[in-house]
Every structure is written in structure tokens, then in C-alpha cells.
Design brief:
Blueprint: H1 9-14, H2 18-23, H3 31-37, H4 41-67, H5 75-84, H6 100-105, H7 109-121, H8 123-141, H9 145-162, E1 168-171, E2 195-199, E3 202-213, E4 220-227, E5 236-241, E6 247-252, E7 263-274, E8 278-279, H10 285-321, E9 323-324, E10 327-328, H11 333-356, H12 364-388, H13 400-409, H14 417-429
Parallel strand pairs: 1-4, 2-4
Antiparallel strand pairs: 2-3, 3-7, 4-5, 5-8, 6-7, 9-10
Helix pairs in contact: 4-7, 4-8, 7-8, 7-10, 8-10, 10-11, 10-12, 10-13, 11-12, 12-13, 12-14
The structure holds flavin-adenine dinucleotide.
Length: 438
């Protein structure tokens, strides 16, 4: 039990002379507040804003949509998120809503802090809102001015200036090509079947993509296809619009977690895509894909962190309000060790993620390290939270079992954690530094 006497933390400051008091910390604020203060001012604002949004809009929806994801209409939430500026956050002001100066130091930090807040309340709704950025990323990273002018700017101006949302999705995975298209060594043997056949004025797309987040609700999809008669090195990114003839969404997967976001099959049946809808360069798809993943992995890591933080916060609340043999759970040493252990993990994960975002350009090793570490730790933390809550841990109403189900998925997408380990090592091979001198 916490006792506020002369041995307490508070007294250790108050008993000091004035100059001593100036040197010690006595704010007793939450770790969330401590961490927020190390962020650049405008990023701090986004963190607070995302927390407010999540509590207001995501928290009440989370259990309802998790129970019945198929009857959920996501458009009002997407509209609201666009109005708050979250759906245009990967572009800086004046075209998007990211603060310009911190963006020039880190393109991903603002998205990452938002992702953690959303995911603390609900993994599915977080993915629903964030997968859009993954769909947009190839347009941005193409560095192709006509692509920016034709597609990116109108969409962002519409979103940032008039709060009119456009939802995008990103499609690389196929029934026989999952990890293969996320690892540069495996890719050369990948069984890719989505094919673009050159025709007059453009290409005909045929084949099926699977597991595409927001696939069923997206207005536009960045789709990767090989050119007919060639292999993965011909991979090209095409912008496919929902209204294009022959394009449809098929089966929606029934997932263990993040259920609010659809993971859908996308079917391309002779879809004519005009040449002007090629994103970046013809045959430039592989490079785009790899770089998009390097940018998106820290954001997935931040989602994993959010799931784990959500589980921790719920477990802490439970231990503060439940008794065992007349004593509050939080007053048992064993429970305190567990909670402290979870906090150590949460803090070290957050610092790893923020560290991985500390560059303007995403660094492959750091992105994958953050993704693997955060998702593995998140699963562990969620299990610890469930363990200290006993049978309440498995009740739907407490949301901790949901956090575990949500967290487990972050070990799979954006490359499984095995594949991300290859990415970490691949990056070391491409530096001049020998592995043993890192
Ligand atoms: C919720 C969710 C959302 C998703 N959203 C999208 C999306 O928006 N867009 C998209 O394109 N895709 C998406 N995916 C697909 C995701 O990226 C793939 O599921 C992932 O890459 C794994 O591919 P796979 O499922 O085919 O597994 P497989 O590639 O079949 O892997 C099976 C197992 O084998 C291991 N393995 C495979 N190859 C190797 C190897 N060379 N060495 C060691 N181990 C290996 C894997 O690590 C894994 O454990 C999503 C998936 C999920 C679960």
C-alpha cells in the first residue's frame, strides 16, 4: 500500500533545501506525460489530439465493432478522422496536416504517435484508419512529379482543406505470395500471378490479391503487378480506382483480431488501367514496395505498443479496484513485480520506436527492429495483463483478451517477424561495416 509519510517519494523532495528541490523531480506526472514532453512541441500536440480523439470516438465503438464487424459502417469515423487531420498526416502542411518542421526531421514520428493512441483503444479501428496511409505511401515515395500532381495533391487538398476523405489501400499479397513479396531474397522465386498485359493506352490487370486491409472500403488501391511474360523484377505499381470495370472485392477474412478493419480479397478481371495510372516508373514496383515497408514498419510497431499499453492500463485499473483476501491486488508484491515488468517493456519499446523514427528517411534495420521488438513484446505484455487478472482477463468486457488478439496480428503483417529479421541483416550486408563491429 502506498503511504505518504517521511519515507515517501513526495517527502524526499519536500524535505530538501530550496536549491536541492530545484534539482529533483517532483511532478509526479504519468509516464505518458513524461514521454510526451520529450517530443517536439507540434508532435506533442498530435499525441494529445490523438488521445482525445481515441477516447471520444474509438473507445465507445471498439467493443461493439469487435463483436459485429460486418454491420459496421466506417464512413462516419473516417470522415471525423479526416476532419481532425489524421487522414492527411503523412504529408506536411500546406498539402497535408503534418507539422512541417518535425516532418523534416522525421517523416514517420507524427504517424507513429497517433498510431499508438488509436491502437490503445482498438486495434481494428486503428488499422482501419491507418491502412489508408499505406495505400498512399507508394504515391508519395514514387518521387514522380506527374504522379504527385495527378493523384496525391488533389486527394490531399480535398482531405486537408475540405475534410473530404478518400480511402486508399495497398495490395501486394497474393494467395501464393505473402512473405515472398516482402523479402528481397525470397522474391525472385515468388509465385506472383497478378499480371498486367500491355494493351493500347494502358494495361489489363488480371489475378487476385488477398488480405488487403481496407480493400472492401477503399476508393483507390495501389496494386502491384508483374508485366505479362516477365517476373518480379517487372513489378509495377498501378493506381486502381474502385469504379474501374472488372475490379471487385471478394471474400472478407474472419480474423482473430483487429476485426473492425476488413482484410479482403481483391479480384482483377481484365481491369483496364490507363498508362497514366502507373505509380512511379514502369518496372519500379519492387523498390517502391521495399521502401514503403521500411516506412510503415515503425507505425505497425507503434500499433503493437498501443495494444500492449491498452492491456496494461486495463490490468492496472483492475488491480486497483479488485481485492483478494481483503487486500487490493495492487498491494501484492507479486502483482507489483508484474506491473513493473510490463512498464519496463512498454517504455523500452516506445523508445525503440521513437528512435527508429528519428531520421527523415526510414532506416531499414531500425524500422524492422522496432517492428519485431514491439510486436513480440506486445504479445508478452498482453499475456502478463491477462495473467494478473485471472479469469477476468478472458472476459470480453475488460478488453484485455481483445488486446492480445489484436497484438498477435502485428507479428504477421508488414512482413512476419521472421522476414523482418532478414531485413535487419540484409541492411547490414549493404553497409560497409562488418556485422561484428556494430
Ligand atoms: C490483418 C492483416 C492485414 C494485412 N493487410 C495487408 C495489406 O493491407 N496489404 C497486403 O498486401 N497484405 C496484407 N496482409 C498480408 C500480410 O502481409 C501477409 O499475411 C504476410 O506477409 C505473411 O504472408 P503469408 O500469410 O502468405 O504467410 P507465408 O508467407 O505463407 O508464411 C508462413 C510462415 O512461414 C514463414 N516463412 C515464410 N518464408 C520464410 C522464409 N524465407 N524464411 C523463414 N520463414 C519464412 C513466415 O514467417 C510464416 O511464419 C495482411 C495480413 C494480415 C494478417
Amino acid at each position: 500500500m502506498y503511504i505518504d509519510n517521511y519515507l515517501s517519494l513526495r517527502y524526499s523532495k519536500e524535505s530538501l533545501p530550496l536549491l536541492g528541490k530545484l534539482l529533483v523531480d517532483g511532478k509526479y506526472q504519468s509516464l505518458w506525460d513524461y514521454d510526451t514532453t520529450v517530443l517536439p512541441r507540434k508532435v506533442r500536440k498530435w499525441r494529445k489530439k490523438a488521445k482525445a480523439f481515441s477516447r471520444l470516438y474509438i473507445r465507445p465503438l471498439a467493443p461493439v465493432v469487435d463483436n459485429n464487424p460486418y454491420d459496421f459502417d466506417p464512413q462516419p469515423l473516417i470522415k471525423e478522422a479526416t476532419r481532425w487531420g489524421f487522414q492527411t498526416i503523412i504529408m506536411p502542411f500546406p498539402f497535408g496536416s503534418a507539422a512541417l518542421m518535425p516532418y523534416l526531421r522525421s517523416t514517420t514520428l507524427q504517424v507513429a504517435v497517433i498510431a499508438e493512441e488509436f491502437a490503445t483503444e482498438c486495434g481494428g479501428l486503428a488499422l482501419l484508419l491507418l491502412a489508408h496511409h499505406l495505400g498512399v505511401a507508394p504515391l508519395l515515395l514514387s518521387g514522380h512529379i506527374p504522379t504527385w500532381l495527378k493523384f496525391l495533391l488533389p486527394m490531399y487538398i480535398k482531405g486537408a482543406w475540405f475534410a473530404k476523405p478518400t480511402t486508399m489501400a495497398f495490395a501486394i499479397t497474393e494467395p501464393e505470395a505473402g512473405s515472398d513479396v516482402e523479402d528481397s531474397i525470397g522474391a525472385k522465386d515468388a509465385h506472383i500471378q497478378v499480371t498486367a498485359t500491355p494493351v493500347n493506352g494502358g494495361y489489363l490487370l488480371n489475378g487476385t490479391k488477398v488480405f488487403i486491409s481496407d480493400g472492401a472500403i477503399a476508393d483507390q488501391v495501389t496494386v502491384f503487378a508483374k508485366i505479362k511474360g516477365e517476373e518480379v523484377d517487372s513489378w509495377t505499381c498501378f493506381l486502381v480506382k474502385k469504379c474501374m470495370k472488372g475490379f471487385s472485392a471478394g471474400r472478407r477474412e474472419k480474423k482473430m483480431g483487429q476485426r473492425a478493419a476488413d482484410a479482403s480479397e481483391l479480384i482483377f478481371d481484365n481491369v483496364f488501367v490507363p498508362r497514366r495510372n502507373i505509380v512511379g516508373k514502369l518496372r519500379g514496383g519492387w523498390a517502391l514496395n521495399q521502401n514503403v515497408l521500411n516506412y510503415s514498419r515503425p507505425v505497425v510497431a507503434a500499433m503493437a505498443l498501443g495494444h500492449a499499453r491498452g492491456a496494461f492500463e486495463r490490468a492496472l485499473h483492475f488491480c486497483n479496484h479488485n481485492y483478494y483476501m481483503g487486500k487490493k491486488l495492487i498491494d501484492y508484491k507479486e502483482i507489483q513485480y508484474e506491473l513493473a515488468d510490463m512498464l519496463i517493456k512498454l517504455e523500452s519499446v516506445r523508445m525503440t520506436i521513437w528512435r527508429s523514427c528519428a531520421h527523415f528517411r526510414a532506416c531499414q534495420s531500425l524500422s524492422s527492429i522496432a517492428k519485431v521488438y514491439a510486436s513480440d513484446m506486445a504479445v508478452e505484455i498482453c499475456k502478463q495483463a491477462m495473467a494478473i487478472m485471472g479469469d477476468a482477463g478472458i472476459y470480453h468486457e475488460y478488453g484485455v483478451e481483445k488486446a492480445l488478439r489484436d497484438a498477435r496480428l502485428t507479428q504477421i503483417y508488414e512482413g512476419t517477424n521472421q522476414i523482418n529479421r532478414y531485413a535487419i541483416i540484409e541492411h547490414q550486408y549493404t553497409t560497409d561495416v562488418a556485422i561484428d563491429t556494430i
